[in-house]
Amino acid sequence: MTQTFSPETDHAFSRVRFIMVHPSHPGNVGAAARAIKTMGFHDLCLVAPRFPDVLDLPEAQSLASGATDVLAAVSIVPTLRQALAPVTMAFALTARARMIGPPPCDIRQAAEISCSHLRQAGSRVAIVLGTERSGLTNDDIALCQRICHIPANPEYSSLNVAQALQLAAWELRYALASAASLPLLPVTDGHAETGDEPAPSEKVQALMAHWEEALVEVGFLDPRHPKKLMPRMRHLFGRNALSRDEVDMLRGLCTAMIKAAKNR
């Protein structure tokens, strides 16, 4: 399902850029295009990729899978400085702690900072990822305003670059969508079925009478010594806010129980 954004949110989403520095695997580029499209973004920039024709290579096209429009719109530049030219806040995504460089934050904090930053007119945010093998250099990081980490297993914290980009895009989407009060769960355009509506009290009470009758017929409830069975049953059904269809289903079960008991 295609997500519909408000003009404000569309504008915010369009001002987020994902930058891959020296990508060497065409498949990762295609997967990155798909990753950002699923989260509502479209601006992917490559810095000096290993293969100049990376966008046309079969592996990139295959792994883009439905996001070939994003792949076709990818911009390719020779330097990170050029990729960051229009950006006002850049996050260098890295797995390693850096002794020197911008202040660090985790990816969720980066998303919150980005959401706040994008409220300013003319602002643009970038998530910068390095090469598959060695990540970002210190010179790359020096061009960014913040270092960003994805909390991961400290014994094995190396994520595939496309996977890291997917996580970053998800966190950014969650922050921007929450700020704009967009739905975070799938919704349908159809109308609820009548049977899905909450059952009125009269239907629930009729069910309870039928349920009690069935329990007596099958020998589960002794009417001479009922104890607290039925009050507990009422609490059980009351907690579940039964729908009309659910009441009808349980009434059918009661009828079957009574019939089976009488045919024994």
Automatic annotation (TrEMBL):
Keywords: Methyltransferase, S-adenosyl-L-methionine, Transferase. One of its GO terms (cellular component) is cytosol. Residues 16-169 form the tRNA/rRNA methyltransferase SpoU type domain. It comes from the Bacteria. InterPro entries: Alpha/beta_knot_MTases, RNA_MeTrfase_TrmJ/LasT, SpoU_MeTrfase, tRNA_m1G_MTases_N. Pfam families: SpoU_methylase (PF00588). GO terms for biological process: tRNA nucleoside ribose methylation. GO terms for molecular function: RNA binding; RNA methyltransferase activity. Belongs to the class IV-like SAM-binding methyltransferase superfamily. RNA methyltransferase TrmH family. This is tRNA/rRNA methyltransferase. It comes from Pollutimonas bauzanensis.
